[in-house]
Amino acid sequence: MSIGKKLHIGMSLAPTWLSGDAWRRADSDVEHLYSSEFYIDLAKRAEAAKLDFVFRPDALFLNAAAVEDGPGFASLDPTILLASIARETSRIGLLSTVSTTFYPPYVVARQIQSLNWISNGRAGWNIVTALDGNENFGLSAMPSAQERYERAAEFAKVVGLLWESYPHAALKVQREGAHYADPSLVKPINHQGTHFSVKGPLNLPACGEIPIPLIQAGASPAGRDFAASVADAVFLSAPDKEAGIEQRKDLRARAEAHGRKADDIRILPGLSLYLASSRAQALDLFAETHARLDKARKIASIREMTGLDLSQWPTDRRIRLADLPPPPPNVRSRTHSDLLRRVISREEPTVAELLMRPEVIGSAHWQVIGKVDDAIEQIKDWAVSGAMDGFIALPGGAVSSMRLVLEELAPRLVEEGLFREEYSGATFADHLRD
Ligand SMILES: Cc1cc2nc3c(=O)[nH]c(=O)nc-3n(C[C@H](O)[C@H](O)[C@H](O)COP(=O)(O)O)c2cc1C
């Protein structure tokens, strides 16, 4: 078996292992969810396992009804949180999620470059175009996906220009002669575009010469094309290996069409890991986590993604592609609605089966429910099949599952020759180049 390069592995700090009913477990530590100590502890564990990065997804809205039965997406601001983690770690990459739909690029360029300084070159930017939250920013409707991606492309370009506008090389710091920086190298960007007008330069020099890694999530054709033009890695929703192979092939070809090398873009599917010491225990963990999942909420989400209303369907009735109305024009995430249509067309599941699929309950992520051995087998299989360049670990079910990922799965991947034993560099970009 030959895989060539080592895998790149990140872990979500979301924390996914407290979702569903898992936050109610005695050892969940959920009381400390809004403290930096909670996340510093996780990041230190992930750094001890030599992961490429930890990252924090983000949303700029709150579903108030959902707080009744779980923490959901209420969270600390990711960039501020990662700045506190930066002070307590020294090698692991710190990937912040910032939406291009609601923020101004000058602020984002400065925040991410600040995180880069505070962490000595370990910042990364997860570029999202957001799913909701328009009313928190004075917009009566969510801009269409097409508009959001157009804005994202211009946004990323402006941020890149701002990062170059005060290059590290301009810093001279010569006390004798009183030369702090060379102003001839610090230039305005004078950007006048469709969405932004930004003069520049940024009021913060670049930290070193190495570019800050950009990660993207969103796999509609527009999303893939945007990712292929700028992203160093893509956070993928791929519920099965074939979805990973197809998307990886497509993204690599699109990167080449943009004049980049196929290897410049790493494909990292999310991987939900419900791990325990036996398969039966792992299945219990999964079942307990989802025991009280609100059926009405799942049915509403299927209706929103596909237009199909299953509320009156018997649970044993099979759903076929022909049952689906034409795709609704303005779905929040084309990625997720396409993956849901795909599973209906491929598997014709019953209503009960569909309601437990990762496309409905797990953001359409690849899912392993079993022992560490089971996870290793699947990871090897996906890697040799060309379905991924690594993954973003989303441990599920309990704290014990997260610990198994970091304390057993990662070392086993090292033994198998699939993952680094030690960091070879000090920056996030170094880890992605390993
Ligand atoms: C795997 C994945 C993770 C995402 N994470 C976030 C996130 O943390 N915050 C956010 O606002 N949007 C997130 N998104 C939404 C995307 O940025 C994008 O707005 C959405 O998927 C619509 O684009 P699409 O039509 O290409 O799917 C995510 C999407 C995917 C597929």
UniProtKB/TrEMBL annotation:
InterPro entries recorded: Diverse_substr_monoxygenases, Luciferase-like_dom, Luciferase-like_sf, NTA_MOA
Protein's UniProt keywords contain Oxidoreductase: yes
EC number: 1.14.-.-
Keywords associated with the record: Flavoprotein, FMN, Monooxygenase, Oxidoreductase
Top enzyme category: oxidoreductase
Domain Luciferase-like: 40-314
MF terms in GO: monooxygenase activity
Family: Belongs to the NtaA/SnaA/DszA monooxygenase family.
Protein name: NtaA/DmoA family FMN-dependent monooxygenase
Organism from which the protein derives: Methylocystis borbori
